[in-house]
């Protein structure tokens, strides 16, 4: 894998992480999130700073590998389509953080989270079609996003009047 491709996908993912953190960190530090009613399956606070960097690294590496393979196969249109799908996915990812934490719009955030889960599943499908089993670790991303959608929706229901 070329370093330039990995740096490109890594930069896109890093920008997403920074945008998400800009929306999330101030609200976590103000204890706003801790005051919300949450379901009993809410993971401990310490889980999120471990899970998200691992998922982001996975997205960057699998995406770089997928883009390289498509390029090597001369599948330039599929490569461009994958890159567009990746950018849409990352925009949904960052957008969720702003809707949920910054704007406190739980209903719309749940819808964006569902779109993110679907987009992540599509990204995984595309990567596995190109890279086979090597891309399977990316399946953790839509699984986590689906869990996050359920959690977000449940938080929305529990905090309707806030």
From TrEMBL:
Compartments where located: Membrane
Pfam families xref list: TspO_MBR
Superkingdom of the source species: Bacteria
Keyword Transmembrane belongs to the record: yes
Segments passing through the bilayer: 46-68, 80-101, 138-158
Membrane topology: Multi-pass membrane protein
Keyword Cytoplasm applies: no
InterPro entries per record: TspO/MBR-related_sf, TspO_MBR
Keyword vocabulary terms for this entry: Membrane, Transmembrane, Transmembrane helix
Family: Belongs to the TspO/BZRP family.
Name of the protein in its database record: TspO/MBR family protein
Highest classification ranks of the organism: Bacteria, Bacillati, Actinomycetota, Actinomycetes, Mycobacteriales
